[in-house]
Design a protein that fits this description.
Rossmann fold; P_AcTrfase_dom1; 697 residues; cytoplasm; EC 2.3.1.8; Phosphate acetyltransferase; phosphate acetyltransferase activity
Length: 697
């Protein structure tokens, strides 16, 4: 069975890294263990690592020793070739690859970079390596600065070279294509490639093509005077500030890099002021040339500004610096998290490798790893996009997560709040949020406000609610967002970053209400541990559930697990296992287990059972021999909120597990609660869960 894919190109800066990052993300969503291998890497200074390897290993947290991820440096290959030892090169590459093949389910192999002379030689070496490894190839060709004839010629040459060596080409990617030429580019490839070869075209993305301030500092050997925290800013374009300020301001574009002599205080201060003005685009940074620095009074003024972009001093003159900046080729580094996420997002938008990977491997993993689980969440959310409302639209974490969700095209979003306030918050945190792709609604001033208030009045007038009270309630973002769901104007809601759990859930209980035959709203966390995903419930809602309530929580949790691809094996946790324990608390768990068995005899359940017996196979066999759940439980039901909440947090902190949730269960339509200490990742993951719930699972 084939266990690898080789990504090859025939030129430098083809965008091969995008394919590697995106494909690695795809593979990790389908397989337990994925390896990464580069037969030949660029020469690197002593003590440093190859950037491609460092980025992939770091971002995806691959547990592979660096030395095992490559075979030779470029200079070593040239030396051995000159010494007539080409066979030794291939033998070593095969040996190192096979070692990884024995340890991993699949290997992503990335070819060389063509960073030096002799690119034709290098391309031939990549063909030979792929042939000897016996794995298929994906060819990546850049369309930047090429005519249609040049692009087509390069593609045909590359395909023929692999075909003539009987290496299977399974896909070809035309990268860095102008947006309007994507369809013609795909059509051109299809014109000479057989049908079994997939073709993809990816547009030129300026934010990936342009260098960051960190890359510019390194290339110019510059000194950072201000803005160290924003060196990951990417440049949109660059221009020299040599004219008078009033004329120069008209040339500024979004993410402009300002290049100006260090004694031009007017340009420096004017650019900084424009950066914080809502009437001018943001700038990415300022380069001060000629080794000149502003006077102390100017430096003091800059230091007191609240929003400072990177300001960098360099020795060379303006003309030389401008030429050097224009020649910088941007790369992706291990610490460029935003750039990596953008790269993967673009890949997933334009490349559909899922069917391709299915063809390559008939691999059926046992269980579900966190990588697979998270990959599946994103895939399922994208399959049927839902409309999610976020009531806390001015919260920085909400806005940052919203950008990521929109960039990945996972959901339609509505943010509640004042537009000007949201816009100012976005500017404050330098977030490149596309306002054309998100709905912003100020509840009181919305066209639906009167209708929503009247609807609430009709629903709650039997509880003594009058129209004034209804309007007061609907001016609250939680009530307004919940009413959007009730009226069918949104599919789900996520709140709680700045509100209590009760504030989030109460409106839902009042008029969204619970599902038929459900009386208890409960919650689960999906705990992404090192090698498995477990469901923890209830860790957020019910303080001291009765036996009947605990049984209902259990059934809801089992259904949630099944809905998200986890075959439930339920452990009803207590301080005792089996029939040995006595006492009110353990009896309650025992009674709840009996209720579940009566209502759902199809479920695999054990209880009462201790945590170690539930998850450790050796302890489980010892305490409950013959149990089909003990030692392999993946749905763990805690007897009360105190135990559940503390346990999930302890597991999260001590093991580094990712806790996705809480996801609420039992409501007619999905409303989910965040904690006020939530992170951007918590918001992102909870919105995805909510979107999938809204698909009618």
């Amino acid at each position: 069975m084939n266990k690898g894919i080789y990504i090859a190109t025939l030129e430098s800066h083809s965008g091969k890294s995008m394919i590697s990052l995106g494909l690695m993300r795809t593979l990790l969503g389908k397989m337990v263990k994925v390896g990464y291998f580069r037969p030949i890497i660029n020469d690197v200074p002593k003590g440093e690592k190859d950037n491609h390897i460092d980025t992939v290993l770091s971002y995806f947290d691959l547990k592979i020793p660096y030395e095992d991820t490559y075979a030779f440096t470029r200079s070593e290959v040239i030396q051995k070739t000159n010494d007539g030892k080409s066979g030794e090169i291939i033998d070593t590459i095969i040996s190192k690859y096979k070692k990884l093949e024995d340890e991993f389910d699949f290997i992503l192999v990335e070819g060389s970079d063509f960073s030096g002379e002799g690119s034709v030689f290098e391309f031939d070496v990549n063909v030979v390596i792929a042939k000897n490894l016996g794995i298929p190839v994906i060819i990546v060709v850049s369309g930047q600065f090429k005519s249609w004839e040049e692009l087509l010629g390069n593609q045909q040459m590359a395909y023929r070279a692999f075909r003539d060596k009987e290496v299977q080409v399974i896909a070809m990617v035309s990268n860095k294509i102008q947006e309007e030429n994507l369809e013609p580019a795909a059509k051109n490839m299809r014109g000479f490639l057989p049908q079994e070869v997939d073709v993809f075209a990816i547009p030129l993305i300026d934010t990936l093509n342009n260098p960051t301030l960190k890359e510019i500092v390194k290339a110019l050997d510059g000194t950072v005077l201000f803005g160290h925290d924003f060196l990951d800013n990417q440049t949109g374009n660059f221009g020299v500030g040599a004219m008078q300020l009033r004329n120069y301001l008209t040339t500024l574009k979004n993410e402009s890099l300002v290049i100006t002599p260090g004694d031009r205080a007017d340009i420096i201060l004017g650019a900084l002021q424009a950066n914080i003005s809502s009437n001018y685009p943001r700038i990415s940074g300022i380069i001060l040339t000629g080794g000149l620095r502003p006077e102390e009074s100017i430096l003091k003024l800059i230091e007191g500004l609240s929003d400072i972009v990177p300001i960098i001093s360099v020795q060379e003159g303006t003309f030389a610096v401008t030429n050097k900046v224009g020649a910088i080729k941007s790369n992706i580094y291990a610490d460029s998290i935003q750039k990596i996420q953008t790269t993967i997002s673009i890949f997933e938008r334009y490349v559909s490798f899922d069917p391709l990977v299915e063809k390559l491997t008939n691999y059926q993993p046992q269980g579900r790893t966190p990588r697979m689980f998270q990959y599946d969440l994103v895939k399922r959310a994208r399959q049927s996009k839902k409309h999610i409302v976020l009531p806390e639209g001015t919260d920085e974490r909400i806005l940052t997560a919203a950008k990521r969700l929109i960039d990945m095209d996972l959901v339609e979003l509505t943010l509640l709040g004042d537009f000007d306030t949201i816009q100012k918050t976005v500017a404050k945190i330098a977030l490149d949020l596309d306002f054309s792709k998100v709905n912003i609604v100020d509840p009181v001033n919305s066209p639906n406000f009167q209708d929503y208030a009247e609807t609430f009045y009709e629903l709650r007038k039997h509880k003594g609610v009058n129209m004034d009270m209804a309007k007061d309630r609907l001016s609250d973002v939680s009530y307004y967002g919940t009413m959007m769901i009730y009226k069918g104007h949104a599919d789900g809601m996520v709140s709680g970053a700045a509100h209590t759990t009760q504030h989030t859930i109460l409106p839902a209980l009042q008029f969204i209400k619970t599902k038929p035959n459900v009386s208890v709203v409960s919650s689960v966390f999906f705990m992404c541990l090192e090698d498995r995903v477990s469901v923890f419930g209830d860790c957020a809602i019910n303080p001291n559930p009765t036996a009947a309530e605990l049984a209902e929580i259990t059934i809801s949790s089992a259904e949630s697990a099944s809905a998200f691809g986890i075959d439930p094996k339920i452990a009803m946790l207590s301080y005792s296992s089996g029939t040995s324990g006595k006492g009110e608390d353990v009896d309650r768990v025992r009674e709840a287990t009996a209720i579940v068995k009566e209502r759902r005899p199809d479920l695999k359940i054990e209880g009462p059972i201790q945590y170690d017996a539930a998850v450790d196979i050796s302890v489980g066999k010892s305490k409950l021999p013959g149990s089909e759940v003990a030692g392999q439980a993946n749905v763990l039901i805690f007897p009360d909120l105190n135990t559940g909440n503390n346990t999930y947090k302890a597991v999260q902190r001590e093991t580094g597990a990712l806790a996705i949730g809480p996801m609420l269960q039992g409501l007619n339509k999905p409303v989910n609660d965040l904690s006020r200490g939530c992170t951007v990742a918590d918001v992102y993951n909870t919105v995805i869960l909510t979107a999938i719930q809204a698909q009618g699972i």
